[in-house]
Amino acid sequence: MNTLVPVIAVDGPSGVGKGTLCQALANHFNWHLLDSGAIYRVLALLALNHHIALNDELQLTQLALNLPLTFDTHHGEVKVLLNGVDVSKDIRTEETGGAASKVASLNQVRAALLQRQRDFRQLPGLIADGRDMGTVVFTDAPVKIFLDASPHSRAERRMKQLQDKQKHAKFAEILQEITARDERDRNRAVAPLKPATDALIIDTTSLSIQDVFNQSITYINEKLAL
Ligand code: DC
Hints:
This protein has 226 residues and is α/β, with parallel strands linked by helices. It is built from nine helices and eight strands. It has a five-stranded parallel sheet. A three-stranded antiparallel sheet has the order 3-4-5, with helices on one face. α2 crosses α4 and α7 (151-164) packs across α8 (171-187). 39% of the residues are buried. The mean pLDDT is 94. It binds 2'-deoxycytidine-5'-monophosphate.
């Protein structure tokens, strides 16, 4: 592990605004960005496409060890490529998110993806977005932030995102999906979603994106003595 490279670990449940915050932080500092959820989503997409059961730990671990996945960054926009094919949109569906949460509950799968995530730790620094960035993957990160928000407000944000993309969605279904995914992510035996003991917890329920960014920047500057 390259402990000389600073990491800002940002964890939290789905729909809490992590992705937006992490992208803004990566732009602000001009650091690398790890979207760890995208890795689990790509694995889940492969499993769905190849009809591999989402609890088949052996096969999924083999797939995880050889995942033909690359991130392609152009003008601040990140494309997720699977076997060279752009799957950025396919991995964002509710189905893939739910499946990602299932494959992510498997111990061997998580172990197989650990080094791949740590390899993102490159100079000048890394913004790491996920569920266990501060508790497992980068335990020595000098800055750890945990975003949380009520399931209702997260479902509302998700609805808005879908509506912006002209996609039809039912609020009750989104809320149920978010609650089920939370339940699984928070209660799994391995690397459950929880704040690191040394994390700053920000409740984003009634905060704007700008508020969350400002609070984070103030904290980061203090921690890194910038
Ligand atoms: O952040 P996301 O919604 O793209 O993540 C999809 C799923 O992947 C999430 O429900 C749980 C899992 N995940 C995880 O277990 N650990 C991570 N570091 C990131 C995501």
